[in-house]
Design a protein that fits this description.
Elements (H helix, E strand, L loop, with lengths): L4 E4 L5 H11 L4 H6 L7 H16 L4 E12 L2 E15 L10 H18 L10 H18 L1 E2 L2 E2 L2 E9 L8 H16 L2 E5 L5 H6 L3 E11 L5 E9 L7
Parallel strand pairs: 6-7
Antiparallel strand pairs: 1-2, 2-3, 3-6, 4-5, 7-9, 8-9
Helix pairs in contact: 1-3, 3-4
The protein binds coenzyme A (COA).
């Protein structure tokens, strides 16, 4: 089997990313709570990841990394997106997250397009707005409790999302997408951080991340209990503490 390709995503990859994320997150307990009717309305679930992928690719502070493998489609070999990591830089900007006119203009355009489309699109019925609001509160609290010092964001690369399509798991793709973030942290002289799902935890620990604590979210899982969110950090050995 040929080796997977790893590269930074562009807007041309949005569709492939959206399909990969929706497939990879279909059985995830957090997305299950936020999108309880995602299996009945898979197009809405893909639509969410499409909007998210476009916004992150056009965000100056985020680098979207993808992995592709060759697959056969109608007798032709094409590259399929089978993995994705969204890494966000907090604290000091890095050369890779510098302001660009292309991203600034693109993001205004896409914002306007989404607003215009929202007038004509049917109402979203697959997600749970109460669970999403509660998750947003959880995110703010996690951010404040773990990743702030003296009122400032810690200087770090933070993994927002990691997803590998079920057809390409256990081939080292998730691990490599994590390493590529750690390499950025080494280059920029900062740490790396993330909040893990139960499935992601072994991948992160195998790449040197340590659990700092576990935050119990207000969002409830399928068993009606709060979903635990382990908080992990990769500590850069070059930093004197
Ligand atoms: C978690 C996920 C990204 C892992 O991707 P992957 O490409 O299969 O990961 P890798 O092949 O790089 O695995 C690296 C190591 O992590 C561990 N690991 C990965 N998946 C594992 C699993 N299901 N159970 C136990 N260990 C696992 C193993 O140590 C593995 O090394 P090995 O295959 O040599 O034993 C993928 O399963 C996924 O997308 N899951 C659904 C979404 C999700 O949970 N994302 C994480 C959000 S925080």
């Amino acid at each position: 089997m040929s080796d997977p390709i790893f590269r930074v995503a562009t807007l041309a990859d949005v569709e492939g990313i959206a399909e990969c994320c929706a497939e990879a997150m279909m059985e995830d307990s957090l997305f299950g709570a936020l999108w309880p009717r995602r299996k009945e309305y898979p197009d809405q679930f893909i639509g969410y990841f499409r909007r998210r992928a476009r916004a992150r690719i056009l965000d100056h502070n985020v680098v979207t990394l993808i992995s592709e493998i060759p697959v056969q489609e109608n007798g032709t070999e094409v590259l399929k997106v089978v993995g994705l990591a969204q890494w966000q830089k907090f604290g000091k900007p890095s050369a890779e997250t510098a302001w660009s006119v292309y991203k600034a203009a693109g993001s205004s355009l896409v914002g306007f397009q989404d607003w215009a489309y929202s007038w004509f699109q049917p109402k979203e019925t697959a997600s749970d707005p109460v669970a999403i609001a509660s998750f947003m509160e959880d995110c703010t609290e996690m951010e404040r409790n773990f990743w702030f010092r003296d009122g400032k964001e810690l200087d770090r690369w933070h993994l927002q999302l990691l997803a590998v399509h079920s057809m390409a798991r256990r081939r080292g793709i998730g691990g490599r997408l994590v390493e590529l973030g750690v390499e950025r942290a080494k280059r920029d002289g900062c740490d790396a951080s993330l909040e893990a799902s139960p499935m992601g935890l072994p991948v992160y620990q195998s790449k040197g991340f340590e659990v700092l604590d576990t935050f119990m979210m207000k969002v409830k899982g399928p068993d009606g209990e709060p979903i635990p969110s382990p908080m992990l950090q990769w500590k850069n050995p070059d930093i004197r503490r």
